[in-house]
Design goal:
The protein contains 16 helices and 13 strands. It has 446 residues and is an alpha/beta fold. It has three domains: 45 residues; 212 residues, Rossmann fold (3-Layer(aba) Sandwich), CATH 3.40.50; 167 residues, P-loop containing nucleotide triphosphate hydrolases (Rossmann fold, 3-Layer(aba) Sandwich). A seven-stranded parallel beta sheet has the order 3-4-2-5-6-1-7, with helices on both faces. A six-stranded parallel beta sheet has the order 8-13-12-9-11-10. Strand 3, helix 6 and strand 4 form a beta-alpha-beta unit. Helix 2 crosses helix 4. The longest helix is centred in the first third of the chain and has 56 residues. It is globular, with a radius of gyration of 25 Å. The termini are far apart. Its cofactor is Mn(2+); Mg(2+). It is found in: Nucleus. It catalyses: ATP + H2O = ADP + phosphate + H(+); Couples ATP hydrolysis with the unwinding of duplex DNA by translocating in the 3'-5' direction.
Length: 446
């Protein structure tokens, strides 16, 4: 073969190799798509298998209260249909079954206790909630629906406490939902005495425990006062179902929760977790604070201009500094953390919810269950302490189903800051390592 023939053969082989490389890339991409779809289908199959018996019994609309439930859904909550598992959980709790519901952030957990509270002619649902910001958020939402609700915490005045406690034993009271912190139950003998009287009079309809994973030391957000809640089943043994709600809990945590709350036979509903409208991104965090601030400023004046959002910071000091600097650059930003006066926290929350404030710069005290539908971005200024915490915090975006961005800035120094805090927790270091893996492995991010 002469040189010309060899050259032609080389060209042919090169073209064929290029063609093969192109097809390999297409096949690799297709393989990844199929692998992802396979995992999703396997997860759905697993979930449906785990919950099949429960759903079969409670997902129908042939219960005595079903017409009323459907009417309340449409007339009060202005919804045409239930989301996955909502109807089954509502029917189960109205059947006096103890229930644990594991549902993604934004999945509609709150309706599962709000709607049943309106079915009974008299009485109220007690909701145990860990954060004032969460209670305020739920109160604002229920007020818009015309549902009479109240909360008791450290900012409640004597007059408010007296009025609410009177409603707790008044059969003609309009009170339907009462929010309290676990600390209120654990430390107020007077309130527990009034709750016992409510129970005796048939006024205590059910107990909902939001963020129920906080009961377990094996969970990612253990709170000591939650362990006191185990007394509730002993104090109110008959016709007061317990409904535990969480977005993040493993099987071992749920088993621990059932044991702590003395509800071993509780039905467990576990809904799918994927929220395709959330776009997850991880970006390198500059070591220079001014450079980092300028990146945030460009995002808020550009990509997220005039959009509602949250920036999560590591500490109170950090949240105040970032909010102050953003405000000095004409960004409507407010700081939120646990050390603020309760009335100030309430005003900050209302300002953000109404749209007067564009962005809340917060610690994790701005918390679980926040239900503002139009949050378009959640920025993590610092590393979250676990993947479960990150899922929950970032999940406050896109509750309306619209596209939203969850942006995490990852810097090496944050590892040391978080590790110094989580080292005393039972699974703290292990959880932090999983979070680091998420930041480093591209295939774990969508």
């Amino acid at each position: 073969m002469n040189s010309k023939g060899i050259g032609q053969e080389l060209n042919r082989i090169s073209e064929e190799l290029t063609d093969i490389d192109g097809r390999l890339l297409e096949l690799k991409k297709r393989r990844q798509e199929l692998q992802s779809k396979k995992q999703q289908l396997e997860q759905k199959l697993k979930l449906s298998t785990e919950s099949r018996e429960v759903i079969k019994d409670f997902s129908t609309e042939d219960f005595p209260w079903s017409p009323n439930v459907r009417h309340i859904l449409k007339s009060t909550f202005i919804m045409e249909n239930f989301r996955d598992y909502q109807l089954a959980v509502i029917n189960a709790t109205l059947s006096n079954e103890d229930v644990i519901l594991i549902m993604s952030t934004g999945g509609g957990k709150s309706l599962c206790y709000q709607l049943p509270a309106l079915v009974a002619q008299k009485g109220f649902t007690l909701v145990v909630s860990p954060l004032i910001s969460l209670m305020q958020d739920q109160l604002l939402g229920l007020k818009r629906y015309g549902v009479h609700s109240a909360m008791l915490n450290q900012i409640s005045s004597k007059e408010q406490i007296s009025s609410i406690q009177d409603m707790m034993i008044d059969a003609k009271s309009p009170l339907k939902v009462l929010f309290v912190t676990p600390e209120k139950l654990a430390k107020s003998k007077r309130f527990m005495a009034r709750l016992e009287k409510s129970y005796t009079l048939g006024m205590l309809q059910r107990i909902a425990i939001d963020e129920v994973h906080c009961c377990s030391q094996w969970g990612h957000d253990f709170r000591p006062d939650y362990k006191f809640l185990g007394i509730l089943r002993r104090q109110f043994p008959d016709n007061v179902p317990i409904l535990g709600l969480t977005a993040t809990a493993t099987r071992s945590v749920i088993d621990d929760v059932k044991n702590i709350l003395n509800i071993p036979a509780a039905l467990t509903f576990k809904a799918p977790f994927n929220r395709p409208n959330l776009i997850y991104e991880v970006s390198p965090k500059p070591t220079n604070s001014e450079e980092f601030f300028n990146i945030l400023l460009r995002l808020l004046n550009g990509r997220f201009k005039d959009q509602s959002g949250i920036i999560y910071c590591f500490s109170r000091k950090e949240s105040e500094e970032v909010a102050s600097k953003l405000s000095s650059k004409s960004v409507k930003a407010l700081s939120y953390h646990a050390d603020l006066d309760p009335l100030v926290r309430s005003k900050v929350h209302e300002s953000w919810y109404s749209g007067a404030c564009q962005v809340i710069v917060a610690t994790v005290a701005f918390g679980m269950g926040i239900d503002k539908p139009d949050v378009r971005f959640v920025i993590h200024h610092s590393l979250a302490k676990s993947l479960e915490n990150y899922y929950q915090e970032s999940g406050r975006a896109g509750r309306d189903g619209g596209e939203a961005v969850c942006l995490l800035f990852y810097g090496f120094n944050d590892i040391f800051r978080q590790s110094s805090l989580v080292c005393t927790e039972k699974t703290g270091v292990d959880n932090l390592m999983v979070m680091l893996k998420f930041c480093h492995e591209k295939k774990l991010c969508r």
